């Protein structure tokens, strides 16, 4: 149980933790590479630690040396059969990307995770992997984990994914490294492309063309050093908080602004937020910048279409932002939110209603009529880190105290979230 009181302003600067998606991939691709991959600014959240634990169970030595993680890769064909079930915890990225990797191994394995993971759809990876020749099945038979995977010879396919999902795309591309011919994934809208960028830098041949990516079978991947940029999904909470709490000015250092992830910035700008990008730099083809955010008057916008995959994890906190904007904000084309760590359409609307917002849940999003003052409430976080952090932000600009029931779940992606928030807050 966490209590959050309103603040008079937010001021100061912080460096948000490393990007979750890039941290997972640095361990996975490092494990499959020849040589030692050194990872700086790795996110030590529970999800990424689950990825480390899974690869350690497959014989990969991963150690922390000072501020860096060292992944001693075993080569593309060097993973060892795990003697135990692989526990992905709460992490969809671990479960889905690992499925793609395991499909091409010369051993059998079982993947599972916590109660939330066991409810999330895995058919979306099992189906395309099966088309590649993989032997992968849902043990309970409901399309969910635990998954039993028997390594099998794979062949390349061209697959049109029904959903824009980087986890699905990445699972297929990773399996494609082990296939006997090229593999192409075509998405309905472009999802985050961290897999393509990082695999390429490890020596894989991957061609991206609009919403399509093609990987060639690989003989080996080669280790390299990785500097993980700050996670824009974590920065989003402070950016929104600074935008809605009057008198705020917050500097967020070294935030990843890959164009497949920067929908947050586009929406903030469209709503009239005062956001300045400073010190832009391109590191390893993953651009980053410092974000300076000041409070300002906000107006409504619509969030839909191809923009959705570029801000999918930020929608809960953008819904909070919309409560403080003049006019009606419509979020649509976001049905994917229903199959995240919680049904985020439902959990966001329920929480906002409890705080007095004027919001209507729809099939694929929500409608938020901004301008109604929020008041403190008891919020059920549903073990969903992004719900906890979004409502912590809402609480800063509400009247009275808010209680986040299960608010400790921020440890999934941002263990020091409440400390960082406190460091910026003036009461
Ligand atoms: C992620 C992709 C997204 C995102 C998740 C991380 C990734 O999921 O919501 O937090 O690292 O590839 P989907 O691919 O299912 O949209």
Describe the structure concisely.
The chain is an alpha/beta fold.
Q: What does this protein look like?
A:
By secondary structure, the chain is an alpha/beta fold. The protein folds into two domains: 2-18 and 230-425, Enolpyruvate transferase domain (UDP-n-acetylglucosamine1-carboxyvinyl-transferase, Chain, Alpha-beta prism); 20-227, Alpha-beta prism (UDP-n-acetylglucosamine1-carboxyvinyl-transferase, Chain), CATH 3.65.10. It has twelve helices and 25 strands. It has helices spanning 20-32, 46-56, 92-103, 123-131, 166-177, 194-201, 232-244, 263-270, 315-323, 344-354, 385-396, 417-424; strands at 2-4, 9-15, 33-40, 61-65, 68-74, 86-87, 108-112, 135-138, 147-150, 158-160, 183-186, 206-209, 212-215, 221-222, 226-227, 249-256, 274-283, 286-294, 302-303, 328-331, 358-362, 365-369, 378-380, 402-405, 425-426. α3 packs parallel to α5, α7 runs parallel beside α9 (315-323) and α7 runs parallel beside α11. The model has no long low-confidence stretch (mean pLDDT 98). It binds shikimate-3-phosphate. Residues 21, 93, 165-167, 170, 191-192, 312-313, 336 line the site of shikimate-3-phosphate.
């Amino acid at each position: 149980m966490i209590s959050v009181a309103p603040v008079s302003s937010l001021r100061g600067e912080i460096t948000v933790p490393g990007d979750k998606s890039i941290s997972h991939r640095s361990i996975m691709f490092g494990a499959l590479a020849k040589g030692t991959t050194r990872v700086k600014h790795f996110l030590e959240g529970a999800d990424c630690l689950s990825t480390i634990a899974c690869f350690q169970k497959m014989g990969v030595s991963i150690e922390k040396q000072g501020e860096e993680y060292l992944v001693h890769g075993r080569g593309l064909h060097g993973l060892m059969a795990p003697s135990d079930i692989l526990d992905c915890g709460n992490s969809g990225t671990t479960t889905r990307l690992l499925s793609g990797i395991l499909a091409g191994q010369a051993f059998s394995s079982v993947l599972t995770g916590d109660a939330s993971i066991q409810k999330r759809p895995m058919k979306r990876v099992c189906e395309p992997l099966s088309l590649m020749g993989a032997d992968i099945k849902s043990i309970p038979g409901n399309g969910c984990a635990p998954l039993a995977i028997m390594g099998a010879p794979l062949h390349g396919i061209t697959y049109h994914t029904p959903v824009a999902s980087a986890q699905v795309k990445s699972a297929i591309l990773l399996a494609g490294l082990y296939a006997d011919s090229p593999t192409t994934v075509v998405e309905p809208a472009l999802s985050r492309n961290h897999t393509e960028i990082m695999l390429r830098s490890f020596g894989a041949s991957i061609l991206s063309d609009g919403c399509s990516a093609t990987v060639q079978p690989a003989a080996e991947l080669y280790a390299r050093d990785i500097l993980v940029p700050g996670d824009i999904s974590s920065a989003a909470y402070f950016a929104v908080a600074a935008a809605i709490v009057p008198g705020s000015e917050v500097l967020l250092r070294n935030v990843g602004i890959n164009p497949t992830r920067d929908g947050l910035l586009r929406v903030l700008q469209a709503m009239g937020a005062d956001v300045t990008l400073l010190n832009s730099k391109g590191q390893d083809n993953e651009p980053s910048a410092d974000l300076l955010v000041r409070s300002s008057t906000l107006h409504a916008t619509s969030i839909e279409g191809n923009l959705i995959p570029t801000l999918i994890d930020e929608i809960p906190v953008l819904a909070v932002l919309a409560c403080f904007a003049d006019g009606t904000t419509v979020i649509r084309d976001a049905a994917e939110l229903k199959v995240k760590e919680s049904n985020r359409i439902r959990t966001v609307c329920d929480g906002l209603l409890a705080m007095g917002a004027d919001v209507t849940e729809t099939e694929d999003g929500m409608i938020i009529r901004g301008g109604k003052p929020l008041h403190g409430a008891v919020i059920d976080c549903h073990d969903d880190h992004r719900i906890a952090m979004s409502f912590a932000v809402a609480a800063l600009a509400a009247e009275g105290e808010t209680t986040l029931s299960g608010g400790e779940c921020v440890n999934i992606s941002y263990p020091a979230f409440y400390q960082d928030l406190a460091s910026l807050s003036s009461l």
